[in-house]
Design a protein that fits this description.
about 15% strand, alpha/beta, binds flavin-adenine dinucleotide, TIM Barrel
């Protein structure tokens, strides 16, 4: 199924993100446990992350997508990065994706890896999108967007122009970086629509259910932390169960507000935790 067909204006789309396990025999089974735990919430689709290293020997993302589609009967989007790939690597991966029956790709540049010089074939995600579009395969392509501006962008205006190029290159759907302040997302949506970007945009929500997650997330993506959020985190820092419950409640509050304000979709960063997905979806089930 092509993902953009889900955005028909009738309801808010709900999707989940999972990541492939690290490479040990013990870990491989964990993704199936995650998927078994998640399937009951019936997301509209599941996206599977891909490393920025561009390692063509690692096809786990695509294999997991195939399993999601075939065994779990849910649409899947395979993430694909290009910063460390050459055209030949991407050709190989597109062929593998076709063989796996995958129709949807989230095309990304990927983060530059310290000490590794990026390859020259693809400078931006829009280059990858254009390349996939011209590859002769009929993939549907999604892209990433940043309500609080990408960390390397010169500014919000430049970032929106770059996003527009991404859509003009062929991205038919966007998924946002996580954020904790809905007003940042609404401001971003206004800018995007003024810029003439009309594709559906899903809001990225990550329920923070342990303290370690916060520092990691903020250093990685620069999301701002509203006072209401930091108050909750410091109040329950020493009580893991209370922090878990409060983190879920905060995310549910964000989601209810986003649905009420007409968000096209909600993309939940599950961190492979089925309990998080189940708690969130049961809280908002009647609103789907
Ligand atoms: P781009 O769109 O290329 O943007 C990168 C920077 O270049 C931005 O600052 C942008 O403003 C600028 N730019 C873009 N185009 C132009 C242009 N034409 N001219 C001038 N400037 C331009 N990383 C992974 O490694 N694996 C994953 O699976 C993964 N999944 C993700 C999923 C989502 C929903 C999101 C939001 C991010 C994900 N990331 C993932 C992280 C992502 O790879 C990084 O944020 C990366 O730094 C940027 O990727 P991009 O595709 O947005 O890049």
């Amino acid at each position: 199924m092509k993902i953009s067909s889900l955005f028909n204006g009738e309801k808010t789309v709900f999707s989940l993100e999972v990541f492939p396990p690290k490479k040990t025999m013990e870990d491989v089974s964990t993704i199936y446990k995650t998927l078994d735990g998640i399937k009951a919430v019936k997301p509209d689709f599941i996206s599977v992350t891909y490393g920025a290293g561009g390692n063509t020997a690692d096809l786990s993302t695509f294999e997991i997508c195939r399993v999601i589609e075939e065994r779990y009967n849910m649409p899947a989007i395979a993430h694909l990065t290009c910063v460390n790939s050459e055209k030949g690597d991407i050709d190989y991966i597109l062929k593998k994706l076709k063989e796996c029956g995958i129709e949807n790709i989230l095309a990304l540049r990927g983060d530059k890896i310290e000490g590794v010089a990026p390859k020259n074939d693809f400078k931006y995600a829009s280059d990858l999108i254009e390349y996939i579009k011209n590859s002769g395969h009929s993939f549907e392509i999604s892209g990433a967007c940043y309500p609080e501006v990408h960390t390397e962008a010169e500014g919000p205006v430049e970032d929106i122009f770059a996003l527009k190029k991404k859509v003009e290159a062929g991205a038919q759907h966007l998924i946002s970086q996580l954020f904790f302040d809905n007003s940042a997302f609404y401001t971003f949506m206004e800018r995007v629509r003024i810029a003439g970007i009309k594709v559906p945009i899903e809001a990225g929500i990550m329920p923070v259910v342990n303290i370690g997650q916060i520092e990691r997330m903020v250093s990685m993506c620069g999301a701002s932390l509203p006072r209401k959020f930091t108050k909750i985190m410091s109040r329950f820092a020493d009580n893991p169960q209370a922090l878990f419950d409060a983190g879920i409640a905060y995310a549910v509050d964000q989601i209810v507000d986003l649905i009420s304000n007409g968000a096209d979709g909600i993309h939940l960063y599950t961190m492979n935790n089925p309990l998080v997905a189940n708690r969130i979806f049961s809280a908002i089930d009647s609103m789907r």
